[in-house]
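Example 444, ligand acetyl coenzyme *A.
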Amino acid sequence: MSATTSVSNEPMNSSSFELRNPATGVTSELPVRSGTIGPQVLDIAHLARDQGVFTFDPGYSVTASCDSKITYIDGDAGVLLYRGYPVDQLAEKSSFMEVAYLLILGELPTAPQLQAFSDSITRHTMINESLLRFFNGFYHNAHPMAMVSAVVASMSAFYHDSMDIYNPRHREIFSHRIIAKLPTIAAAAHKHALGQPFIYPRNDLNYCSNLLNMFFAVPCESYEINPVAAKALDLLFVLHADHEQNASTSTVRLAGSTGANPYAAISAGVAALWGPAHGGANEAVLAMLEQIGTVENIPKYLAMAKDKSSHFRLMGFGHRVYKNFDPRAKIIRETCHEVLAKLGRQDSPLFELALRLEEIALKDEYFVSRKLYPNVDFYSGIIYSALGIPRSMFTVMFAIARTVGWVAHWLEMISDPAMRIGRPRQLYTGPQQRNYVPIALRKR
Ligand code: ACO
């Protein structure tokens, strides 16, 4: 199509933009939709019908794929709200179970509501013994994210009786099951890698204490859960619980929009989270810090991060939405100080190196001009390491926390009567139609 279209700079009125195709003279009005806070969006749902064009937005940098009431981010101001509550208030005053209730059900619970919710999660922590045997099929050095995504997908083979996505009770059972069983599956993956016996969940423990027990207890001696470790883990889970339409959440929505069973959709989310540009960054940060090794090497690695011909990036730096400090990174950095001090590890060389790297990078013109700040995963791995969690499990920890957000978004989407299959368009740049050439006549 040779015609160009123009969008007037000013809104035609407060509620629509006028779009005119100069070649055809066809004009159409694009409604402007307002949320409760944040930028307005241009509703282009009828653009193809009215103008015969699609929009082009690789990476979905400026495209809202849905409306949502769950999480709000102001990337310029460094603000993150769960159902309207600032994440720093929740980090200070709330707990992961309470945040899970809030994200999924929309309001903070009363004490009896929280009790009932936590009890239900606790009573779903065991996994079917047959599911447990799946782990024997994995080689001992399988990456835990590979095991977790496969086993989560396999859960759909166990719960045929409660997978009607249009039945609200089935949806509730699914949501409690998946949140409850993720730590059990993660711990089974960890024990499999170590060659240690699986430790069954304990219903007398809270969510994070139970996780630590399943990870670190062994049958031959008693294991004392460190409350500092359990509290630190709970805080990390609060901070990772949701982040609106990020890559893994959008993956869960897209997979779920086909009507696929929710375990398959969550498994897709786990797979998307694994990448180093997303949840895999926490593992990559530690690898990078170990590679850098000493403060003297920082300039060399910063130069590599700035060199466009190198694939090296400063892991744990930069974010699609935050163009200011990621508020979660600030909290985690403070928590690092506290946790390392309480665990007697205040002289952690990797933490010292991370602090120096942040300081130096934030004075560097390259990072300043691109507004690249530490993100949530710059410091989280240092805390996980201090808790004894191996590096390969970091992204699994993230997946456990983010399962709550995935569930909240899946529920919001499925319960919306206007739900449609997610189906992006493309700008085709391949060959035009041509005729098949018999193999004997092909010349190269
Ligand atoms: N190191 C060096 N340069 C960077 C970095 C980085 N970590 N991040 C962005 N840049 C540069 C880009 O090269 C680009 O430079 P240019 O304008 O000269 O071309 C500019 O900053 C903008 O970066 P984009 O890649 O366009 O930003 P995008 O929004 O697509 O990517 C992302 C965001 C993936 C997070 C990116 O910053 C990155 O790869 N960071 C490192 C990985 C990471 O920490 N991921 C975790 C994100 S948080 C989470 O998902 C939990």
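Summary: The longest helix spans residues 168-194.
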